[in-house]
């Protein structure tokens, strides 16, 4: 597969570009890398307050773990979503943000999109570690299912990367893409049962459930809630669907990217 | 025929010039996905070979396709037709320090930029000291590069790029970076590149340096290959015929330029402001350009050059060198260059004068053979060549009585 060859050939470039992303982002801030944790924590706290305390969402306790804390339940869905959404948006802007570099130096252009995603994989892994500790602290047993959690984080990475491959070139041709996508991501977020349990929908609008479940991120959310919150292996059907969808999207995304790669320097 | 480092085979490159670009989805939908554009061939069926170990120049007017050619060789642009084959590793100096992240330190940026140019970490480790040393950045290497002066920025970028040690080096108009000291180092580096048998491809408007640096050159005109051959021939041909606005003045001088500012006359003056065509070695003289403009000209750079009668480039100097930077000229005027001692050996010389823009790439007016003058024997009196250095003999060991004879003109 050419993607793998590409990756191996430019391993050091990818590493350096990723480090640039990670180091450059919080330079000259007092808190530095702590910001990358504070941000999701603040979002988590806000959503927990609004949807847990005020709107009184109450998902079923973890089965079989017995964990029954809304914030933890929320975090197991929200943190993977934030990872995915950030991979999509930052990958989408990676080409335009480095227009100058693309026009002046030859190097594999895909490394810009990949390194943006890798930088987020790094910071999100830390966040996921914190979520893991939270689950552990409230009596869950996430360590047993850690291999599955890691595997599906990688699948989520592939899905996000595949989409951002496509969007990054689309954004070069139509600058509207980024604005359009930011609206779309909002809708996608609320359409996915992250802030509320899917049982809320099942109770009131049962006919909508198949539509909600057609969303691969819903499947991912289920999977992460299983491995972290509920403390059980994800269902085979969910696992098969997300793995298949993620890999197919990555392959298509990369193919689209390579088709347009040659003309990036003149179209930017 | 020597082995080729680069083979350019029937290369054509087409650009799309959009009238109204579909950069919005609404526009794309309204026009059903068809953006209106004109096609414009920046390069058309260009073929040439660059022999291994040679220095090759690409010349042509602005918009002739020479930079496009260089970018195609550098693989930044992909030709629509034809192919370019190159043997060995390749590095392009198109814009220096373009991959730098302003918030990161010089050190971090060296590693980042090096890897973008294709170096591995261990290669950069090996070259790191050489890179820092060459750039002259010194202790600032651990400062964020946004605190660098523009000169330091470019110097560091150049140092990284040149230390990639490619088999083929592509250079676009970057010879004019840094101060004189740094330029000397660059020229040395180029010379050592050539000695190592590496191939260099240059794009430049500086015909003088192209003529002396390059072995061969290709002349592009509106995307088509005009001629390819020995650099000196091509450059002379180009200067003689290549410029549409070339004309001959009443005095037989050739001139070209866009004409917003024109040199009306050039004079060699004595300290009493008397125009002359003879001077002695060591005389105090003034070189004057009288000019007029048809519209206000921003940031003009005035320049003089002296050539021997045989066409050897002896000296050149412009207002940018001196940091004498007028903001604007308008109407009729003059500018003087005072020379305290004319350090030329006796012989016939010609004076060239120019008015160009701040980037030195756009010529308002350039007059060859603007003035012919003769230098007579004066003081100091030295044996030969074009220039006098005013040296003094001394410190003889073992000592001996010395007979001194006044070096007066005969």
How does this structure look, described?
The complex is a heterodimer of chains A (268) and B (410). Chain A has 268 residues and is mainly α. Chain A has helices at residues 2-9, 11-25, 34-54, 70-97, 99-104, 110-137, 146-173, 176-191, 198-204, 209-213, 216-230, 236-261, 264-267. In chain A, helix 7 (146-173) runs antiparallel to helix 11 (216-230). The relative contact order of chain A is 0.14. With 410 residues, chain B is an alpha+beta fold. Helices cover 22% and strands 36% of the residues of chain B. Chain B contains 9 helices and 22 strands. Chain B has helices at 25-30, 66-73, 106-116, 121-135, 150-162, 180-195, 207-213, 231-241, 319-322, and strands at residues 4-20, 36-51, 55-59, 81-86, 90-93, 168-172, 199-203, 216-221, 224-230, 247-248, 254-256, 261-269, 275-276, 278-280, 285-293, 297-298, 301-308, 313-318, 328-329, 332-339, 347-356, 363-376. Residues 243-250 of chain B have low confidence and may be disordered. Chain A binds chain B through residues 12-13, 15-17, 19-20, 23-24, 27-28, 100-107, 173-177, 180, 262-263, 265-266, and chain B through 15-16, 22-26, 28, 71, 74-78, 92, 94-95, 98-99, 101, 103-104, 108, 111-112, 115-121, 144.
Report the helical percentage of chain B. 10-25%
State the separation between the terminal residues of chain B, measured CA to CA.
55 Å
- Counting DSSP H or I runs of 4 or more residues, the number of helices of chain A is 13
Judged by helices, strands and strand pairing, the structural class of chain A is mainly alpha
Order of helices and strands of chain A: HHHHHHHHHHHHH
- Relative strand content of chain B: 35-45%
Unreliable sequence segments of chain A:
none
Name the biggest interface: A-B, 29 and 33 residues
Number of helices of chain B: 9
Q: Supply Rg of chain A.
A: 19 Å
The biggest sheet of chain B amounts to: 7 strands, mixed
Average pLDDT metric of chain A: 90
Radius of gyration of chain B: 25 Å
């Amino acid at each position: 597969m050419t993607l793998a060859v590409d990756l191996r050939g430019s391993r050091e470039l990818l590493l350096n570009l990723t480090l640039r992303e990670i180091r450059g982002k919080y330079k000259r801030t007092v808190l530095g890398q702590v910001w990358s944790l504070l941000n999701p924590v603040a979002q988590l706290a806000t959503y927990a307050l609004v949807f847990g305390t005020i709107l009184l969402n109450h998902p079923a306790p973890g089965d079989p773990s017995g964990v029954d804390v809304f914030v933890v339940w929320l975090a197991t869905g929200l943190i993977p979503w934030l990872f995915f959404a950030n991979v999509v948006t930052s990958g989408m802007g990676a080409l335009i943000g480095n227009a100058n570099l693309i026009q002046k130096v030859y190097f594999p252009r895909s490394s810009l999109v990949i390194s943006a995603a890798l930088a987020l994989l790094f910071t999100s892994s830390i966040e996921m570690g914190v979520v893991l500790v939270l689950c552990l602290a409230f009596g869950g047993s996430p360590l047993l299912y850690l291999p599955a959690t890691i595997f599906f984080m990688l699948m989520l990475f592939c899905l996000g990367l595949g989409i951002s491959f496509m969007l990054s070139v689309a954004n070069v041709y139509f600058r509207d893409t980024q604005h359009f996508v930011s609206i779309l991501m909002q809708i996608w977020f609320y359409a996915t049962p992250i802030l509320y349990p899917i049982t809320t929908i099942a109770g009131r609008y049962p006919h909508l459930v198949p539509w909600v479940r057609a969303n691969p991120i819903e499947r991912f959310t289920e999977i992460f809630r299983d491995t972290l919150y509920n403390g059980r292996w994800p269902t085979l059907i969910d696992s098969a669907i997300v793995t298949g969808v993620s890999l197919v999207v990555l392959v298509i995304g990369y193919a689209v990217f390579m088709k347009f790669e040659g003309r990036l320097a003149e179209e930017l | 025929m020597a082995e080729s480092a680069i083979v350019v085979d029937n290369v054509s490159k087409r650009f799309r010039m959009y009238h109204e670009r579909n950069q919005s989805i609404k526009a794309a939908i309204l026009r059903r996905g068809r953006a209106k554009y004109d096609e414009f061939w920046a390069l058309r069926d260009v073929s040439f070979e660059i022999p291994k170990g040679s220095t090759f120049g690409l010349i042509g007017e602005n918009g002739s396709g020479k930079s496009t050619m260089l970018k195609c060789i550098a693989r930044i642009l992909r030709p629509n037709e034809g192919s370019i084959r190159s043997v060995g590793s390749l590095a392009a100096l198109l814009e220096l320090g373009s991959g730098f992240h302003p918030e990161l330190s010089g050190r971090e940026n060296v590693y980042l930029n090096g890897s973008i140019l294709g170096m591995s970490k261990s290669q950069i480790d090996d070259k790191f000291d050489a890179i820092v040393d060459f750039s002259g950045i010194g202790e600032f290497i651990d400062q964020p590069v946004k605190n660098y002066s523009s000169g330091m920025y470019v110097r560091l970028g150049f140092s990284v790029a040149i230390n990639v040690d490619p088999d083929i080096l592509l250079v676009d108009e970057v010879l004019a970076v840094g101060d004189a000291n740094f330029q000397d180092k660059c020229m040395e580096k180029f010379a050592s590149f050539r000695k190592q048998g590496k191939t260099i491809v240059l794009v430049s408007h500086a015909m003088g340096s192209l003529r002396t640096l390059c072995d061969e050159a290709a002349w592009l005109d509106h995307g088509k290959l005009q001629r390819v051959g020995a650099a000196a021939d091509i450059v002379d041909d180009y200067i003689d015929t290549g410029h549409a606005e070339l004309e001959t003045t009443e005095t037989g001088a050739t001139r070209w330029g866009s004409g917003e500012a024109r040199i009306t006359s050039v004079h060699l003056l004595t300290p009493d402001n008397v125009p002359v065509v003879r001077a002695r070695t060591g005389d105090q003289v003034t070189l004057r350009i009288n000019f007029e403009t048809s519209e206000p000209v921003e940031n003009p750079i005035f320049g003089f050059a002296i050539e021997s009668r045989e066409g050897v480039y002896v000296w050149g100097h412009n207002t940018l060198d001196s940091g004498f930077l007028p903001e604007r000229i308008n109407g009729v005027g003059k500018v003087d260059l005072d020379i305290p001692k004319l350090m030329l050996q006796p012989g016939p010389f010609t004076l060239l004068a120019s008015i160009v823009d701040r980037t030195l790439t756009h010529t308002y007016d350039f007059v060859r053979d603007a003035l012919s003058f003769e230098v007579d024997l004066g003081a100091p009196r030295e044996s030969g060549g074009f220039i006098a250095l005013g040296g003094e003999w001394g410190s003889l060991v073992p000592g001996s009585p010395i007979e001194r004879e006044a070096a007066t003109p005969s």
